[in-house]
Structures are given as C-alpha cells and as structure tokens.
Amino acid sequence: MSDRFLLTDIWSALEDLRARRPLVHNITNYPAMNTSANVLLALGASPAMVHAAEEVEDFVAISDALVINIGTLSPPWVAAMQKAATRAAADGKPWVFDPVGCGATPYRTQAAVELARLAPDVIRGNAAEIMSLAGKAGTGKGIELVSRADEATSAAAALAARTGAVVALTGAVDYVTGGGTPAAVHTGHALMALSTALGCSLSAVTAAFTAVRPPREAAFAALAVFGAAGAAAAARCRGPGHLPAELCDELYSMTPETLRRHARIEANPAG
Amino acid sequence: MSDRFLLTDIWSALEDLRARRPLVHNITNYPAMNTSANVLLALGASPAMVHAAEEVEDFVAISDALVINIGTLSPPWVAAMQKAATRAAADGKPWVFDPVGCGATPYRTQAAVELARLAPDVIRGNAAEIMSLAGKAGTGKGIELVSRADEATSAAAALAARTGAVVALTGAVDYVTGGGTPAAVHTGHALMALSTALGCSLSAVTAAFTAVRPPREAAFAALAVFGAAGAAAAARCRGPGHLPAELCDELYSMTPETLRRHARIEANPAG
Amino acid sequence: MSDRFLLTDIWSALEDLRARRPLVHNITNYPAMNTSANVLLALGASPAMVHAAEEVEDFVAISDALVINIGTLSPPWVAAMQKAATRAAADGKPWVFDPVGCGATPYRTQAAVELARLAPDVIRGNAAEIMSLAGKAGTGKGIELVSRADEATSAAAALAARTGAVVALTGAVDYVTGGGTPAAVHTGHALMALSTALGCSLSAVTAAFTAVRPPREAAFAALAVFGAAGAAAAARCRGPGHLPAELCDELYSMTPETLRRHARIEANPAG
Questions:
Q1: Would you call C34 and A29 a contact, using CB atoms and an 8 Å cutoff?
Q2: Which residues of C touch B242 (CB under 8 A)?
Q3: Chain centroid offset of residue C194 CA
Q4: DSSP H/E element including C158
Q5: Chain B positions touching chain C (beta carbons under 8 Å)
Q6: pLDDT in tens, A10-44
Q7: Looking at this predicted complex, what is its ipTM?
Q8: Do residues A138 and A162 touch, judged by C-beta distance below 8 A?
Q9: CATH of domain C7-267
Q10: Domain ranges for chain B
C-alpha cells in the first residue's frame, strides 16, 4: 500500500469483498456474536460462529478468514482459539486478533499474550488493550478506554514490530501501524462507544477484508467502511438504541459518497 | 392434514397457540438465543433457554415442546442435547431439530446424524444441511445455502423416510415432506437471508406450533406465519438492520390478511 | 432511606451514577448479555461480561458492583458465580442476585438457594422465582410469572429477613422489602413482558445503582428509572420488536419529567 491509499481503493476492496462473499470464521464473545454476524452479513460477507476444539481446525480450512476475540474467554475456548490460530497461520489463512480487556486480569492478559504469538495478521484494540498487550503499564478497567489513543501509538508500533502484525488502535481517532507508514483514520461517531459489540464487529469486518486485501489495506478498509457506516448511522439516531441496526443498514447500502463524507485517512499523523 | 390445508387452518393454529402459550424449551446457538426468545414471545409462546445436562430432562418434563439447534455445538452441549431429545421422545413431547452447518465439519455432521436418530418430529434446514444429513454429497460452506433447494427435495424425502420426521427444507421456496403429500410454501423475503438467526428462530417457531398441532401441520403453520411476518417486515425496511424487530412486530400483530397476502401453500409442487 | 424517598432522590442517584460511570461486572445468561450491556451503557454505566473461574475474583476486585444471573447456568458457571459472590461479599462490593427460573428444576433451585446464602445485597425476581427461593410452594413454569405478585409479598419479606438482602419482587406492580418500610413501585408497561432479557437488564441496572447508593435506595432507583424508560419506550412502539432499542434511547435521554410521568413509589402498600 502506498501512502496515498485512497478511498477509491477502499471502495474497490468493498466491491471485491461483496463479489467474493468470504466465509469469516468467528470465535468471539457471547454478547458480540449476534451483532458481529449481522454486521458481516450487511457488509457482504458470510459469518459462522464455531468454537469447539473438535472442529475449529476443520472449519479454518474451509474459511476465508478468522477472527479471534477473547471477550468472554474461558479455558476450553482459549484452547480452541489456539488451535484455530495455529492452523490459520500454518495454512496461510489470514486471522485477526481482538484482545478484549487485555490488562484487566492476569488470566486475560496471559491468554492474550499467548495468542499474539501465533502470528495474527491484524491486532485490533483500544488504547488500554494495546498498551497492555505491548507490555506497557496496564490499566485495569477492563474494556474501558482509560488511556488516550495518542499516548498509545508508540505501544502500537512496538507491538507491530514484535508480532509482525498490523496494529489497528481504535479510539476517537483510529491509528494503523505496521507494514508501512503509520496513518490515522478519522471516522466514526462518539455514540458508537455507547453501543456494545461494535468494536468486536469492527474486528470481524477487518477479518472479512483480509480475505480480499493484505492486512494493512484490510485494516484501513475496515476502519473506513465501518466508521463511515457508524457515522452515517449515528446521524439517524436519537440515542444508542438503534445504532447497530442503522449501522447494518448503512453497511448494506454503502456508497462511495457515504465513505467519502465520513472517512478520511491521514498518513504520518502527528503523535 | 389433507392436501387442502388452508391458511384458515393455519390461522386457527396460531389462535390455539396464543391461547395455550406453550413453554418452548430451546437448546440453541448463542447468537440465536436472544432473537429466538423475542420471536417466540412475539408469536405468543413462552421461551426458555436451558442447556445444562443436570437439568435438561427435568425441563423437558415441564415444557410443551423442545427445539435443538447445533449452531454453536460443543461436547457438553451435545451431551445435553442427546439427553433432552431422548427424554422428549420417551415422554411423547414433540421436538424439532435444526442441524445448523451439517456437512461443514466431520464433528458437526456426526453430531447431527446422531441427533437425527433420536426421533425428531420435524427437521428444519437449508439445502446444504438437509443434503448432508441425508447422506448426499455434503458441501462444506457452513451455514451457507450452497445447493439449490429444488435439487435437495429428493434428499429431504429420503431423510423424512429414514427418520420418520417431517422435513422442512427452507430456501427461496420452502418445501415440506413426510407424513403426507409434499408441498411448497411460497413466502418470506430475500432480505431475511441477510439477518442472522432467522432460520434458527423459524425452527423455534416450528417447535411452538408442534405444541398445538401434529408435526406436518406445525411445519406448514410455522413456515407460513413466520414467512408472512418476514415478508411484511421486509417491506418496512431499507436494509436488514431492523428486520428482526419488525418481524417481531408483525408476528405480534399478525392478521389473517397479512397471512393471506404473504404466504401461499402449493401441494404437489413440480420438482 | 426515609419513607418519603422521592423521585428527586432517584434523579440524584442517576446523576451520581452518570458522573461515576461504575464498572458493572455481569455474570449473566447468554441471551441477556447483549441487551444488558446496551442497557448499562445507555444508563451511563460501564459493563463487562466476565465468567471464567480463573479471573472472576480478580475482576470483582476492579469492579464497582456485580450482578449474578443464573438464566443459562451450568456447573462451571455456577462455580464461578460462587467465587465471584464470595469475593464480592468479602470485599464489601455490592452484588445483586437474579434467580432466573428458580423453582423450574431441582438443579436450578439448589444453585439459587446456595447463591442466596452468599450475602447478596439485592435479590430481584418475579413472583414464582421469589416464592421458590423463599421455600414456598414452587411452581414449575420456568421463567413464567405463575403467581400473582400480591401473593408473593410475604415470601419476599421472609426471604429478605432470612438473607439480609433487599428483595425486589417485580411484576405488574413492583414491590421492595427489606431494610425499611415495604413500598410498591408503579411503573413499566405490559409490553415489556414480551421482550426477552428486560428483567435481567433491570437486575444489571440495580447493580449499577448499588455502586452509588445503599441497596434499598438502589433498588428503588433501578425500578423507577428502568420502568419509566420502559413505559416511555413502549409508548413509541407498535409491538415488542423495537422495545429494547427504544428503552436504551429513553435511558440515554432520561429526564426528571419522564421519571415523574412514568414512575410512582407508594410506601406501605396494601397487601
């Protein structure tokens, strides 16, 4: 990807995704499953939720991309996540890691650190999660964004360097590092933080784009398309209640104009 | 059921269901639980989600019908499903089987085959699932409809003959076989395929109708009522986002007119 | 709390909650997770869903309140619930217990009875659940309200006396007992019974309020705020489909006027 990665390239990625309709294997948290599935369907992908250790490897083999999200982890799920990630890496299938709540408890942090060693293509998290996963002073407030995103960019860069993954650090402004010049994505809407599972759904969308683009382009496309849909959706809402449904409708009817109006990529951002 | 089964009979089944308010025991997949419960409530049934092996048999005993859906199966869940199905069959309680993703992995196919031996009253699935469960060449794309429904009708008939169940094969046109003359149900809307858990919810609705009608009539009633609600709901939507909510509202306010406008049953369909 | 506890006090509690943004640790049932999280976010709290025995104690330690709901219980979850409740009680962290379906099966009743011994601050349930947990003749119909609320108030008082908890008995009229003069809360809307997970979400809201008020005040605040939001939301709905989304929007934009219009507390109710 050049530094001039443009919204026209992102639109092209979305068209390719819709044409291919990739099968996205989700191992994600319980409250995010329904929303993630609906977001993927509205985007143009085909979701499946499959977590049993007895079948995750076989399912990776028939999928186009994998997303692993530790939001409601437990030992049998972590074991299946490790099997699935290992198989994806071995098969050259792209996989996206969402380290939900990394830093909140030792068990969770340890599970995240181990999964991050299994060669994810993209890691998507908020500042607290990325800083904790990078080994910086963890904060404890669970899924909360307790650090400012601009303080976490160096942690993101370090994590990208260590893991080889593209790191998508999301917050009021999103930041992508790894595999090229860092860049910021200005998109989304503050109301999105008041609706659960949207960050998780963004990770699933990122996985869908890895089926049709390399990790860095996939991260930009996911942030821009999902953020633009969220911004357009929020403009139709009086509160967060209908935001997931409106977001799905905006994804379903996404246009180049909506994308251009609500998403802007800035290479080499200050900070 | 005679071949002249009419929408007036279906309306009568819905009235009986609303009067009885059957308790429907759901052992279903995580992303479908919330939607299935809301659909059952809107329909007029009483849902419960109970999956622990320690209590499923006791819960079958107080329920009016059972639905088992393997969408997010794992060994402890499959063990509980087997206990529940065995108890339902022993007690003469009707139960509906939804073999989600049958054919996608060997583990899933094996679990589905074993459950199908436990005397389900209705099996509801898409073409890929029904063909795989019938032992025809499985396709692998998970929950995707990768075969045309009209190619799967002979598999459905074979499955009905082998299991003794009524088989409801759903797709662009739905097809019911077993226990009488095969018939097609023309209803629903293409947008429904872009909203997760609607097929699963249809299986739950089928279970609710088995509490007030024999399996074949229950299958027709479920397909017609649910499909008509979906079609009426889709007409109010600009995308799939609000479809589950609108579908619940249409179920809640279903009228004979909506049913007649959006559902048509055709006995002895060609193919 | 005096018997003259007023809606102005409840409004003040909501303002304090929004200012503090308490982290609420939820161990709840699968179908309620997404709805509970969205309700808590719209209210102004910060939700987390954490259930692994390996981390629940650590997560209790960083949370402001805990809610335990046995809707989809199983042995590993019950073990984690016991660890979390024990830790909360030891640390003086408030916790709320929702004994979903208590009385429906022996396994469920036993689990509920054992959890109720672990010093919950508030117990929130319907008449069948509260009566069963109090040791009165259990009814069997699962999550159904099979007893009239006014028959269950003595069971609620006995349960409050035995456990030391405030008991919030919910139904057409809600009833709070324990820690002071019993009082009724008149609020809500009949349509709420046709939307899943709203009772569970109310328990989560109660936990959020325990982070800023003692248990009795928290129970009143939760019932009044949630019920008023539900009543205002129902007035915007043609059926139950959009009720959870509208309820979130009403929580998000709650005003003293909405609270006053839709909630009324009556001390020393007859019966």
A1: no
A2: 242
A3: 17
A4: helix C149-163
A5: 23, 30, 33-34, 37-38, 41-42, 46-55, 58-59, 62-63, 76, 242, 244-253
A6: 999 999 999 999 999 999 999 999 999 999 999 99
A7: 0.95
A8: no
A9: 3.40.1190.20
A10: 7-226
